[in-house]
Amino acid sequence: MFIKWTVIFSLLAILSKTAESIMCYQCNSTDTDNPYQCAEFMTGSEDIKPTPCTNVYNAQYCIKFTGRHEGGLETIRSCSSLDHGNYCIYGSQRGDQLDYRSCMYTCSTDGCNLATSVNTSFLIKLIPMGLLAKIFL
After folding, report:
1. Is there a domain that residue 129 lies in?
2. What confidence tens digit (pLDDT) does each residue in 1-57 have?
3. Which of 2, 31, 63, 75 is the least buried, fewest Cβ under 10 Å from its Cβ?
């Protein structure tokens, strides 16, 4: 009986969310005060670190946008309360000789908007916990 309750409380502790917000990289590649700190491809050696998303109500996601924005090419890393998905669009403006690509990446773990890859989903993390519960319950 003790093992059963231990497993149940462990699963609840793992699955519960704390009141703290997600921590994301928050930067803009056009920031002249911190040049080169928010490039499209970051290596992790930059001076910036993930920070709490306290400025976005109910922030649950980190996002990375890269592409054409406000007349130039830009990379923005930020927080969001919405899951914007992962997609790229291609287009051009009148007079452009080349198409451009704009991409949006959304993820839901601390610091996950460093790169373009998206971390494993919550469901994949849930599978081992479900197997443990089945074994012990």
Report:
1. yes
2. 556 555 455 544 444 444 568 999 999 998 888 878 888 888 777 788 999 999 999
3. 2
* Contact predicate 128/91, CB 8 Å: no
Q: Residue 71 domain-assigned? A: yes
In total, how many domains does the chain have? 1
In angstroms, how far is CA 38 from the centroid of its own chain? Answer: 15
3 falls within a domain: no
Full domain range(s) for residue 58: 17-136
Task: Give the angle subtended at the CA of 69 by the CAs of 67 and 70, to the nearest 5°.
Answer: 160
What distance in Å separates the CA atoms of residue 41 and residue 57, rounded to the nearest whole number?
28
CB contact at 8 A, 48 and 25: yes
Q: What is the pLDDT of residues 53-89, one digit of tens each?
A: 999 999 999 999 999 777 778 999 999 999 999 999 9
> Using CB atoms within 10 A of its CB, is residue 12 exposed (0-12), middle (13-18) or buried (19+)?
exposed
